[in-house]
From TrEMBL, chains A, B:
CDD domains: HTH_ARSR. One of its GO terms (cellular component) is cytosol. GO terms for molecular function: sequence-specific DNA binding. Keywords: DNA-binding, Transcription, Transcription regulation. Residues 4-65 form the HTH asnC-type domain. Signal peptide: none annotated. The keyword Transcription applies. It comes from the Bacteria. This is ArsR family transcriptional regulator. GO terms for biological process: regulation of DNA-templated transcription; response to amino acid.
Length: 145, 145
DNA sequence: GGTTTTACGCGACAATTTCGCAAATTTTCG
DNA sequence: CGAAAATTTGCGAAATTGTCGCGTAAAACC
């Protein structure tokens, strides 16, 4: 993976905001020709710098109107179960993000559900189990960024 | 915003994974003509169902190899400063996600930085201020999802 | 300083998207 | 239930966008 110059950085910056920018739109903002921009973007994709392009969908469409951040603390006396839990969390459709972290907690989840009932069902199904010692639910009131 | 049928749902599902799918690729998987698919996608964009399309960039490219989840607790005696802080957090380039939440904490941040030093600078610049009572840093060891 | 390498812009070509239109399907309403 | 209205489809043409080769210019290397 070769070095990225300021043109590449600018392109990434722009595409990170709007991946549908056209060659000439990029050209205008970057100061290269359309073809040059597209060639660079093509290489950025092939080399894996741009991992993929995704559509951001309004969560209300799927009836997922509620987001919850969950701080999970594990029972550290059962390290064998960790991979199982990992797999389970990755599989759960409600979980849109899941990080293993250091500190007072072990796992931070971002969960999208329709409503409280839905969330409650998720908790019962996934979170209530002996390997999880404690979990703290933080309902998202508003997305600042 | 009209009702979405199964075709729209399938299109969204596909584009959520890969926004660069071409009209005929969509047609093949959805069972409509290329033009019909593209027309529907166009409408989904215009109506805001598809909020935007973004390129996912390998974080290492920008040298941001470290992710931290930060739980922020505010001094609730200064409600006037909330909007200021909001704006400041939204502006900070290190902050990739920022939610206002209920519960034991007030704000949950997702921060991407190069290293500890970088993170420390971020903390000093943004987080160390009278309006913030406390913050808890959870370094991300691994992204499960 | 000359040579090689790399990247650019230009322009032709290919692929993709957009648009108009008639037919088909679905919805509305008497 | 059935006809009129509205919506959506597929097809094909037109427009836009992306890809590629080529000659040239700039940068890197020796």
């Amino acid at each position: 993976m070769a070095e990225l110059d300021k043109f590449d950085h600018r392109l990434l910056e722009l595409l990170q905001e709007n991946a549908r920018l056209t060659g000439s739109a990029l050209a205008q903002q970057v100061g290269l020709s359309s073809a040059a921009c597209l060639r660079r973007v093509q290489r950025l994709r092939e080399s894996g710098v741009i991992e993929r392009d995704i559509a951001v969908i309004n969560p209300r469409v799927f009836g997922k109107r509620m987001t919850v951040v969950v701080l999970v603390t594990l029972n550290n006396d059962r390290p064998d179960r960790y991979n199982l839990l990992r797999a389970e969390l990755a599989k759960a459709p409600e979980v849109v993000q899941c990080d293993h972290v250091t500190g007072a907690h072990d796992i931070v989840l971002r969960v999208k559900v329709a409503d409280m009932e839905d969330y409650s069902a998720f908790v019962d199904r996934v979170l209530v189990q002996p390997y999880i010692k404690r979990y703290e639910s933080l309902a998202v009131l508003g997305v600042i960024k």
